[in-house]
Every structure is written in structure tokens, then in C-alpha cells.
Design goal:
Elements: H1 3-30, H2 32-45, H3 59-87
Length: 88
Amino acid sequence: MKKTQECKLGLTVGIFLAVVHAVWLFAVAVMPSATKSFLDWALKMHHVNLVYALAPFNLLNAVLLVAFAFLVGYVFGWLLGTIYKRVQ
């Protein structure tokens, strides 16, 4: 795998995670009660019962979350590409 392929894999995973988190943030901003209901359902499926509240939407935190998700996804994708290249 060429170096550019590792970067492409990092970008792909990073963009995917950033988009997933952006969709989540959109749901929290537009329909918080439906989002909480979805979380309650998902946690019940995992046999988890938590008492929690969704924080009010904050644009700065939203931007930081999307940027951090992209960064983590990029690093993970790049590492995955590097490991794949070395085992071939």
C-alpha cells in the first residue's frame, strides 16, 4: 500500500466518523426528545439503565466534537493502513 493509500484510508475513516457525529449533533439540536428516546431504547437493548439528561446544544462543543471525531478516525485509518502494509 502506498503512502497515499494510507492517507486516503485515514481520510475516509475520519470523514465517516465526522459525518456520523455531525448527524448526531443535528438530531440533538433539532429534536432532543426524540434523540433521548433513541438513546433510552439503545441502552435498554444493552441491558443498561442510566439516569441522564442531554445537555443543551452548544455550537463550540459541536465543532470540537466533529473535529475530534475526524482526528481520531484519521489516526485510526492511517494506523490500519500502515499495519496492513506491513503484514503484506
